[in-house]
Specification:
mainly beta, 187 residues
Length: 187
C-alpha cells in the first residue's frame, strides 16, 4: 500500500513508456475534451497542506464519467489523481510525469490533488512543452521551453494557442517536429 501522504512522502520512479506511439494515444483516447481544462499547470499547493510529489506513467481507467486518472509508479503501485488539471493529465496518457500537490481522497483511497506537473518523458524522450504560437518567422513554443519549430505538420498548425508537447531533433533552424500532442486545446 502507498505510504501515508500526510507524512509528505516524495516518490520518484523512472518508467519506460511503451504501448502505442504518443500521437496515436492522443488521437484514440476516450474524448478528453469532456474533462475540465485548467488555465495553468503551475498552480501552488494550498497553504497549510503537506506538499506531495510523485513521478510515474499516466494511466486512465474507465470510460465516460467513470474515468479515473492515475499515476502508475515503479513496481505497479497506482496513485489516484484529482484536481483541476485532470483534463490536461488525461491527454498525457502514457507519458511519464512528475506531479506536485496535496493529499486527497479518491475512490481508490489516498491520492494527490495535483497543483502542478512536469512532463518528464513521452515515448522515452524528453519533450519541449509550451503554447503553440505563429509569427512572422513561422511557428514557435512559448513558455518555459521557448523554441522555434520547424517542419510543423498541417494538423498542428491549426492548433495555435494550444498547450502542446513536441519531440524531435534540434537543428540549426529550430526544433524539428517529429511527434507532438495537444495537452490543452486553444481557447
Amino acid at each position: 500500500m502507498w505510504p501515508s501522504i500526510a507524512r509528505c512522502v516524495c516518490l520518484s520512479a523512472t518508467l519506460l513508456v511503451g504501448c502505442a506511439p504518443a500521437q496515436e494515444r492522443a488521437e484514440t483516447a476516450d474524448d478528453p475534451s469532456e474533462a475540465p481544462a485548467a488555465p495553468d499547470s503551475s498552480a501552488e499547493v494550498p497553504p497549510g497542506s503537506a506538499e506531495v510529489e510523485a513521478t510515474g506513467r499516466v494511466v486512465v481507467a474507465g470510460t465516460g464519467a467513470m474515468r479515473l486518472v492515475n499515476l502508475q509508479m515503479e513496481g505497479g503501485e497506482t496513485v489516484g489523481l484529482t484536481g483541476d488539471l485532470l483534463g490536461e493529465l488525461m491527454r498525457l496518457t502514457g507519458a511519464v510525469v512528475s506531479v506536485v500537490g496535496s493529499s486527497s481522497q479518491t475512490v481508490q483511497g489516498e491520492g494527490v490533488n495535483v497543483a502542478r506537473y512536469e512532463v518528464v518523458s513521452v515515448d522515452g524522450e524528453t519533450p519541449s512543452v509550451g503554447v503553440l504560437a505563429e509569427g512572422g518567422d513561422g511557428f514557435s513554443l512559448e513558455g518555459e521551453d521557448e523554441r522555434t519549430l520547424v517542419d510543423v505538420p498541417p494538423e498542428l498548425r491549426s492548433q495555435v494557442g494550444a498547450k502542446i508537447w513536441v519531440v524531435g531533433p534540434d537543428t540549426a533552424d529550430g526544433l524539428r517536429v517529429r511527434s507532438y500532442g495537444v495537452i490543452r486545446p486553444a481557447g
